[in-house]
Amino acid sequence: VTAALIAMPTCALGAYGFTRLSGKGILLLLGSMLVLSVPLRYLLKHLHMKLSDRGLLAGSFFYGTIFGVTPGAGVIMVAMLMAAGVQGTAVLATDALVSLALVSVKASVFVVTGVVTPVVLALALVTGLAVMPATFVGRMIMLRMPLHIHTAMLDVAVVGGGAVLFFYGLG
Questions:
Q1: Which of 22, 40, 117, 139 has the most CB within a 10 Å radius?
Q2: Are the C-beta atoms of 89 and 118 separated by less than 8 Å?
Q3: Upper half-sphere CA count for residue 69 (Cβ side, 13 Å)
Q4: Residue 121's Cα: distance from chain center in Å?
Q5: Which among 92, 4, 74, 7 is positioned nearest to 34, based on CA atoms?
Q6: What is the DSSP string of 86-150?
Q7: pTM assigned to the model
Q8: How many angstroms separate the CA atoms of 49 and 139, rounded?
């Protein structure tokens, strides 16, 4: 909970900075974050870093900015929680709580700055409803697939999608 409280102000600043980007800037930022997130996840897992409670709080301060500016930052919080000794379902529960708090802050910034209009909200709801059936089909497929294959497929999709966004941003 303290990590979320510390990350909230910097998340708001990061989200505000995001609203100031041009369309190309957003594509470049999102694309590069997605491409970098896969090797970053492997690097953080490989390093087996250890964090004290103070280190977790300091990391949360910077994490808020990263969360506010980019998608896919959750891998960083999970790595920090694990490095601080949080284990098992507590990692997922804590990450979910922090993410919920920060998404609320981020969404509030987007509404206040006028980025989220009623049309944008309607499109988001329609898109969310449209992909729900595919989520259930994907879950059924994933449950029958070995974890390493699933992880590799996601890694390829994330890096590939990020590369496409990045190159569209250059154009």
A1: 40
A2: no
A3: 18
A4: 20
A5: 74
A6: --THHHHHHHHHHHHHHHHHHHHHHHHTT-S-HHHHHHHHHHHHHHHHHHHHHHHHHHTS-HHHH
A7: 0.76
A8: 32
Please determine, for residue 60, whether its predicted confidence score (pLDDT) is greater than 80: yes
* Pair of tokens at residue 151: 């992880």
Task: Categorize the per-residue pLDDT at 68 as very low, low, confident or very high, splitting at 50, 70 and 90.
Answer: very high
Looking at residue 21, what is its pLDDT? 92
Q: At what angle do helices 53-69 and 2-19 cross, to 10 degrees?
A: 30
Give me 71's structure tokens: 């998608």
Question: pLDDT value at position 78?
Answer: 84
Q: Provide mean pLDDT across the span 22-28.
A: 93
